[in-house]
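Hello again, I could really use a second opinion on something today. I've been staring at a protein lately and its backbone has me curious. Can you walk me through what the tokens say about the fold? Take your time with it, there's no hurry, and the full record follows here:
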Amino acid sequence: MADPASVVVVGSVNLDTKLEVQHIPVAGETILSRRRSVSPGGKGANQAAAAAAAAARVKFIGAIGDDEHGRIAVRNLSSWGVDLSSLQVLARVPSGEAHLIVAESNAENLIVVSPGANEHLSPAHVARALETDRSTVLLTQLETPLTVLEVCAEHRGSQWRILNPAPVAPASELRSLLRGFNLLVPNRMELAHLAGSAEPRSLEEVRACTRRIDFDGAIVVTLGSAGAALFLQRDSSPVVIAPPPVRPVDTTGAGDVFCGHLARELAEHGDLERAVRAAVHASALSTELPYAQLLARPLGVSA
């Protein structure tokens, strides 16, 4: 019998400051922002919110500072019904922050993260929180220490153990941990990093990259506006799933929406292809919204 939290997410919590610009600046270029907004974020929190918004029962394990940014994050995740009983509150460390630049021309983005409390999440705390957890799905990313990832890799209480290898980390440090997971969800850039190759453009190049990774589970490669490619095994032919037509205004957090919905679907029925199709659909629709945590309202806006 699964724990009441059918999805457990181990990950980061940030407060996102978004600057909307005409185009993404290049090195040395100074441009003016047309609009500024602040909203809840963090890959782990985004994915937890997405899974909860899709009607999963979600438990979140992460760390915040004892500050207003942390309290905002708590209020927001609580509003989605996320179980925060395993959230670590650290007294002398600030909560994480992310600064996003989003281009009005094509909705592409650039993100810089200040980890704060996220890099102080205790592996021992995570181990205790997971010790008795029997959620169907464990979902984690790389915005917390690799020692936390080691704990997640050793966890065997969940049927599905998903690693979203973002943001990229040293591939040499990840390779030994991959065997602890049975589902890998990278984008093209993250896939290339793990494979030690150039970023793939064609589907055949994506397939070649998957073959270079020493991983025995299934791989779902998110392809942005092209949807996703599902490889049930490393050397299998992919199932390519196209997204519905949308008019994107902000691609920030689309990958997190994908992961959250994927986790929710797997917790409900366990059919991977069906889960990927639902996640592609939800992720595409999320790009028509302006904030990372789905329908979360901005906390403050200035022109």
